[in-house]
Amino acid sequence: VYQEFTQFKVDGGGLLTSEAGSFSLNDLNFGLESYGFTLREAATVSWFEGQGQLTPFVLEGDAGRITVAGRYNAEVVDARAEWKDLSLSLVELVGKDPMAGMMNGSITITGSPASPKVDVESTLAGYNPVPGDDNDFPGLDTDLKAIIADGSLRVDVTTSVPEKAEFRADVTMPVALALSPWQFAMPEGAPLEGSLDGEGDLSVVPPILGMEGQDLSGTLKADLKASGTLASPGLVGTATVSDGYYENGSSSTILNELEILLEADGKTIRIAKFEGNDTVGGTVSGEGQMTLDPDTGSPFDFTLKLDKPRLVHRDDLRTQGAGELRFHGDSSGAKLE
CA–CA separation, 269 vs 290, rounded Å? Predict the structure, then answer.
């Protein structure tokens, strides 16, 4: 068979057989552009009077391996999906530039349909959106674990760049999950707990976000804790940027000696310090705050002060800024003055 889609081509073949209440897939092999995949063994799906089973479906190819298997009835669910050495270069199938990196992980669902337990584990190793011989970015690594059990969701994430940065985040909240009848809900009034902490070199940000022609450096530190509820969250702690530097190669915009302090004391998030200069006498500074209050639209008010910094400094165009910019509003809208 052969089929051309908007972004990629599929070609290959296989054998599908069926009987009452089941069908089997045998000898499947196909290609997506330059990626080939093969079904490693026959897989059978059966379903009869509310009971179902999938024997291991193992798809393996140039860009990794995917395995799915499970069984389901009114009393028991036992299903697992697993991906191994899955290459991020697959994103080119949807029109994106190839990326470097590898994903491994699994999703397991066990227990009963009325009260299932869900375990998710996933790792991302060596993520680099712009791979190449002239790119010395070591890659981003991420480890995620999530579990839904006994009416609660717990998520833990660690993200790091070797010898450059490491951040950890976690969140715990109540959740209602059932497969039969289907239900998934997060009660807005239930308690919420979470945290974010870590330290990193800001030089890793441009390669992660694909900010070509822009340089960023400095140290970011965070120590934040979330509380309250989904409907009315709270945040306590600080986040800082010290010895920061930003340069845009196309406009020659420079922000030097950046110092930023963000403070949170429950319902208020405040920019207590924002200072920088353009290395030739111009300065920028700012202040402001946001109130975490959904009943009033979570209002915010931020002011940026410009004292003749070079905003653009090229041979064909040079501009400086002076005065104040105010950005304020709430969840219903915002104004820039």
Answer: 5
CB-based contact 269:289 (threshold 8 Å): yes
pLDDT of residue 7: 40
Read off φ and ψ for residue 110, nearest 5 degrees. Answer: -135, 175
Which residues touch 149 (CB under 8 Å, ≥6 apart)? 117, 118
The answer to whether 286 and 271 have CB atoms below 8 angstroms apart is yes
Instruction: Please write the tens of the pLDDT for every residue from 285-299.
Output: 999 999 999 889 999
**Over the stretch 41-60, which tens digit does the pLDDT of each residue have?**
878 888 887 789 988 989 89
Of 7, 16, 56, 13, nearest in space to 31 by CA: 13
**In a 3-state reduction of DSSP, which class is residue 147?**
strand
Structure tokens at 73: 């009835």
- Check if the beta carbon of residue 103 is closer than 8 Å to that of residue 124: yes
DSSP code string of 43-107: EEEEEETTEEEEEEEEEEETTEEEEEEEEE-SS-EEEEEEEEEEEGGGGGGGTPPP-EEEEEEEE
- Residue pair 308/282 in contact (Cβ under 8 Å)? The answer is yes
